[in-house]
Amino acid sequence: MTAPIPRDLPDLPAIPRTHALLLSSVPASAVVPPVRRRLAAVLRLLLAGTAAAGVTLAFLLGSPLRVLSHFAIQSNILLTLVMLLSARRAWTARRPLPSAVTGAALLYVMITGLVYHLLLADAAVPFSLTGATTLTGWHMMAGHLLHTATPLAAVLDWLLLTAPGQMRLRRTATWMLYPLAYLLFSLARAQLIHAGTPGRYLYPFLDVEAHGYRHALANALLLGLSFYALAVFLVALDHARPNPIGHRGKTGFRLQPPVG
User: Fold this and answer.
1) Which among 23, 108, 123, 134 could bridge 75 via Cys, Cβ 3.0 to 4.6 Å?
2) pTM of the model as a whole
3) Average pLDDT per consecutive 10 residues, the chain (260 residues; last block may be shorter)
4) Of 22, 35, 19, 173, whose CA–CA distance to 103 is shortest?
């Protein structure tokens, strides 16, 4: 006489549900094989070369320490390094750089372009540098590379060669640490230079001699709030913009590999 078959076998582990496996344990590399993104790599090398050329030209035309003190130079150096790393990862089919790094580089170079064109190059603005100094053709070329060409190219790279939805709102506060540190550096640098020395303040809206500490700090606060609003706008736009590099099928997996 046979014993009844037990309904449950307690020694056997529970079998996870199929859709849970698909959502949590299947890596992206198992769905889409890694692909070298040679075009993205070449374009990013060109962008890095453009930024590096502007920085090099600026160093050749001015005092290295003073040139290095400018926000535009520092932001373009950061962009050069980020684009070189991104180009290498795209060429070798590796994962893209974290959005916290690429987003910071994009934000800072956009700040460079916007501050220059809205505050420094506009003759209608009180802080305009138009006509204040005589610029040679080489100075103008360096200015166009640093303040116009690289910011526009960085925005196009972000919009056309990266997957959307990668930036995170929590990173925006972290991104503001560098502009704050630069403000403190700029004010401290001015205190180490004798009063009345030309070029003591790198930017006219931070000129304490001309405007006083109250107005200079008010200008810095207004700019800081504007920079934070720009960072939030970039995150919102990153989640709202369409995907330029592929689409998702019914399974939810990307049909084309992300471009880093």
Assistant:
1) 108
2) 0.81
3) 57 54 50 75 97 96 92 97 96 93 98 94 69 69 94 96 94 96 92 78 88 90 97 97 63 44
4) 173
